Amino acid sequence: MMGWLSIPQKTFITSFILIFSSVACSTTETTTEPAPVVQEKTKEIENSPVESYRQPVGDLVPDTLIVSGVERSYLSYIPVSLPDNIPVIIQFHGGTGTSQNAYYQEGSLNLVADAEGILMIYPQAETSTGNVWNTLHSEEGNKVSADDFGFIEAIIDRLGEDSRIDTSRIYVAGYSNGAAMAYQIACHLNDRIAGFVVHSGNFPLEEVINGEYPCNINGETAGLIFNGTADRTRPLEGIPTYAVPVRDGVQWWAEQNNSVSVTTAQDGNVERTIYVSEIGTEVQLFIIEGGGHDWFNFTIDGMPLDEFTWDFLSNSNS
Predict the structure, then answer these.
(1) What is the distance between the alpha carbons of residues 318 and 314, in angstroms, rounded to a whole number?
(2) What are the two backbone dihedrals, phi and then psi, of residue 288, each rounded to the nearest 5 degrees?
(3) Which residues contact 111 (CB under 8 A, 6 or more apart)?
(4) Which of 34, 89, 123, 212 has the fewest CB atoms lying closer than 10 Å?
(5) 137: Cβ–Cβ under 8 A, 6 or more apart, which residues?
(6) Beta strands at 259-267 and 222-228: parallel, antiparallel or unpaired
(7) What does pTM read for this prediction?
(8) How many angstroms separate the CA atoms of 178 and 93, rounded?
């Protein structure tokens, strides 16, 4: 193992993050996503088994880079122990939220990162436009003008400058508006993303919604999709002129993978549908009866949900 792992982690993250000082991106992205009426509901953690996992064991470190002339920020969570080839999960917070929300309140992937040696990246949506991700390319009806596609591409570029990062194992995750961003990064930066997990989100599939900006699919993509039937913020029916119905979006991903089989099973209030391609790539949809606008937390195949998430994602490479 290389010598940098034996030095204090804060020294490592400083050297890791300062690989280059700025990134210039020329394309300004816009969005027609409906502006949130109220702040998105954060995940309830009272009496939750994930509550004790919130305090970092490794280092939670802020950093910035420059994208299209604008300073953008993100958090990096560095576990105490890391493998020789470091996998990465980029997790997007919900709309009007923060990168701190993603770490402290949305899921428990930080626990999985500690156990498995995963570098976690928590980007921050542009604060000047309300902490909402710009999930579309359309310039019509702009509500957010931040270059978020360029921002995430710049983060991935920075990661790629470090030979210790396994760039074939970069994954995206997100909640609500952040789920839409995860969908879109997996769609439009497909050759750089090995898989995705989304909670309580809709897929703004532009090539279907408005016949423009098709996804750039370069290979099969593994995905986990969680939605509740009682979610009125990001409903199963989708959002007209913005996002496709959840089941249609899952079917679209299955078609991109050339899936050859589909099975559906019911376990209590959870309906689970699994699409499998000829080479074994899976897209799984979980519909939670009565589920609201949450990052969900239940057991799957005998594992806590976020532990199951990594077990699933870790089998996929870009």
Answers:
(1) 11
(2) -100, 110
(3) 50, 53, 306, 307
(4) 212
(5) 29, 30, 149, 206, 212, 213
(6) unpaired
(7) 0.84
(8) 5
- Residue whose token pair is 């009565």: 290
Q: Which residues of 102-118 are buried (b: 16+ CB within 10 A; e: fewer)?
A: bbbbbbbbbbbbbebbb
Residues 197-255 pLDDT 10s: 999 999 999 999 989 999 999 999 999 999 999 999 999 999 998 999 999 999 999 99
Q: Using alpha carbons, list the distances in angstroms from residue 76 to 56, 122, 222.
A: 11, 6, 24
Contact 298, 270 (CB under 8 A): yes
Q: Could you give phi then psi for residue 69, rounded to 5 degrees?
A: 80, 5
**Structure token pair of residue 73:** 């920020």
Domains defined for the chain, CATH in brackets: 53-313 (3.40.50.1820)
Q: What burial class does residue 265 get, using C-beta atoms within 10 Å of its C-beta: 0-12 exposed, 13-18 middle, 19+ buried?
A: exposed
Q: What number of other Cβ atoms are within 10 A of residue 218's Cβ? A: 13
